[in-house]
Amino acid sequence: MSESDVDRVALDPYTFGAEQQCFGCGPNNPHGLKLRFAVEGDSVVTTFTPSTGLDGPPGIFHGGLQATLCDEVAGWGLVGLLGRMGFTTSMKVRYMRPVRLGTPVEARAKIASQKGDIVTMKVTLSQAGKVGCMARVSYVLPTVEAAENTMQRPMDPTWIPLFSDQGDTDA
Length: 171
Description:
Number of helices: 3
Oligomer: single chain
Number of domains: 1
Distance between the termini: 42 Å
Largest sheet: 7 strands, antiparallel
Radius of gyration: 16 Å
CATH class: Alpha Beta
Strand content: 25-35%
CATH architecture: Roll
Strand order of the largest sheet: 1-2-3-5-6-7-4
Number of strands: 7
Structural class: alpha+beta
Order of helices and strands: HEEEHEEEEH
Helix content: 10-25%
């Protein structure tokens, strides 16, 4: 175990239940990335090695999938750092240099700001110690009622603690 692993606390991949089918983190989604996350200080991190088939230009990790990775680590940043679940409201992505296939990518999210029920996360995707992509991802932290309204279905009971009412959260 490396020194950096000592300070990492793994987040439960079954936080949203064994049957949830999230493309990014669903443990049993046969088409998904099956990402796993950990809290490290004031950040949530994951490591992912993009493989052939996830290309944009030959040998380069597809930009839209980089954005997906940013959204996932930022969303899990809410879970790991605030104990909350949110819905993405906006994302600004900046591609700094090519992120290559076959080389591990570290995705890291930190809270950039929180104003009421809106939280903005700062994300970096780094490869071989160099930043390849940066993003700012904003989320609304809805109440259970607002989340059910958005999803158009009753809340899975395992999710309810992640949507605990905090202030005025009319989503």
